[in-house]
Write a structure and sequence with these properties.
74% of the residues lie in helices and 6% in strands. It starts with a helix and ends with a helix. About 2% of the residues have low confidence. The radius of gyration is 25 Å and the shape is elongated. Strands 1-2-4-3 form a four-stranded mixed beta sheet, sandwiched between helices. The protein is mainly α.
Length: 317
Amino acid sequence: MIIALLAAAAAAFWAPPLLTALTARGASAGLGLAAWLTAMASTLACAAVALVLLARVVAAGWDGLAEVVCRSVTGRMCARSVYSGAAREVALGLACLAAVTVAAMLAWRYGRALRRAGRQTRAHAGAARITGRRLPGEAAVVVLDAAQPAAYCLAGRPPTIVLTAGAVAVLDGAQLAAVLAHERAHLSGRHHQLTALARGLAAVAPAVPLFTRGAAEVARLAEMRADDVAARRGDRGALVTALLAMATGTAVPAAALQAGRPGRPRAALGAAACAVTARVERLLDLPGRSRRAGGSLAMIGAIAALAAAAGLAALLG
């Protein structure tokens, strides 16, 4: 039980700096996404194992619980005189009750947050389909009359991609196709579900660094993963200029990629938001094959280590 708790605490507080260093540049966004989600799942699994073990010992009797706690801390030095006594049994019983109560409350709040997010998404999608107009040739794409360039997807039945009139005005045909490919990559990768799960954990446990940092990293890496899929299926240059056009609110022709130094749309990058700038720089400055392979191996190792830690904690428990 103590081992499972220590494993959960180690993943919750020590994993974020390691994973941040591994995924900062987004060299392999898909593996980075998997690494953060595995860390979260491992933490929850270890905490669940500890809670189950605690419940099993409680069911066996207060004396058994006190003995398990004593031996987990002191090992063979634990004697019956150390853990016996009514006062200790009452204290341990209250601690068990508090742990179960907190776990049940957090689980209820997490489920409520996910249900609320789902209802809001469905309501937004319904409103967009009613108030927006269909994009010609695209049955699942609606255009809202808003001047600010924006594009996003809403899961549901059917899934909907929403564009604003401002986005349509600043994108040419190839850029629009790249933006739609990006949003379809979000839908096919179920990124909306992954980000909702991560944000729910951050909402119910804001004191856990893995969850708070992980929610932001999952959202960031999901964008980069969708960029990779869209660039692989279409025109990378069109995607880059589309990102710049959406960020600046002005049309950015493909020739802008040749302005300044080759491959550096300097003026547009200066006006873009920081997050968009990072995504554009990443698309333009792809690391070499050996570097990508090294980063992928490091993240695969991290994923395996986190999964093994959860399995080992359950086995030892």
